[in-house]
Amino acid sequence: MPTKWKRLTALATMVLTTALLSGCSNMMVLDPKGPIGAQQRDLILISSILCAVILVPVLIMTFVIAWRYRDKPGNKSKYTPKWEHSTKLETIWWGIPIVIIGILAVITVRYTYATEPSKPLESANETMVIQVTSLDWKWLFQYPEQDIATVNYLQFPANVPIRFELTSDAPMNSFWIPQLGGQMYTMSGMAMKLHLQADEPGSFFGSGANFTGREFGKMNFEAKATTQEEFDAWVKQIKSESPALTLEGYSKLAEQGVTHEQSFSSFPEGLFNKIVNKYASSHQHGAKTEASTDKQEKSEKDAEAADSTADGQEGHDANHAGH
What we know:
It holds the Pfam family COX_ARM. By secondary structure, the chain is an alpha+beta fold.
């Protein structure tokens, strides 16, 4: 093939690749709408820039060296077959990457700690709890404070920290709202915690990011952040118009299959804990949610108080008998 056509082919390939990659410009993770998502975006950009400091010069040098030292008639490039070492070059191509890796390590550790999923978010507003259960192939969202539940639809107030408690009553999945933060696995017998927040009202894409069988690609849901007033009105509407979720209804919902958005005016007390403890024999370390732990601590304190009262009463009776 003539050199002219080779160059045209290479140019056409580059233009086509650029056109194809342009479709990836609308990346949700680079358009965050919450504090966790914003920090994760910053880490992605910083890491990319630091890596580019190494990658771009290497790519340029590869092209330049291949072009300059190519075999061609009348090539007058200096020929040094016994050259084998340069302290200056060794220092450059080892020193710069080591420094960049060190900087990247420090930055990564800092951001990893700052975005720890189980770490509560600082806010003047009280944290809201939403319990999430991944099923085949749908999402169940329980609101223990509002006593309502939804399927494949999530709504919460903007500027309010949300503590998602995550588990699974099906194969392991991954809960992900890209514009609010990174994904978190949902696993049977375990109650994982993920703290997120939306800084403004809006509708965000949510999905299951883990392969779980035939219809896993349809495990998408809408995560909608609204004003507090709109959220309260939505809860009131569900309480007045939607049916209750029963244990029998949950068993049917948990069966394999795809379903539409649903809402329930109430759900069985302790349903989330029952789902977690259903697999507790094989995952004892994840069988307790934060809510159930608080309840157990309260029960233990009440028991200790009762024991103290009983001991005091026994002492009083013994003294009375002695008199």
